[in-house]
């Protein structure tokens, strides 16, 4: 605020009131974002977006890739368990 003109008390009060409104709005938005219910809803939507495309169809390639990875990890764990069990 590099105004060279002197500001009146009313102008300063109006600026303070506007700043308070902006700050209150920002705080309300942050409280809404941090609400655990809203965080959970966003996480559910994000998970659904990983499994379903925009038309609501399953993303089969992604599901097959995840299932393959799970099967691979389980297989590796079973092999390790067998090797350790032989000792």
UniProtKB/TrEMBL annotation:
Keywords: Membrane, Transmembrane, Transmembrane helix. Pfam families: DUF3618 (PF12277). InterPro entries: DUF3618 (IPR022062). The chain crosses the membrane at residues 63-84. This is Uncharacterized protein DUF3618.
């Amino acid at each position: 605020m590099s105004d060279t003109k002197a500001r009146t008390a009313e102008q300063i009060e109006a600026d303070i009131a506007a700043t308070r409104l902006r700050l209150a709005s920002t705080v309300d938005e942050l409280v809404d974002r941090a609400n655990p219910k809203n965080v959970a809803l966003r996480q559910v939507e994000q998970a659904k977006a990983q499994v379903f495309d925009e038309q609501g169809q399953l993303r089969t390639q992604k599901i097959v890739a995840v299932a393959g990875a799970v099967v691979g990890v389980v297989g590796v764990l079973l092999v390790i368990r067998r090797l350790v069990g032989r000792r």
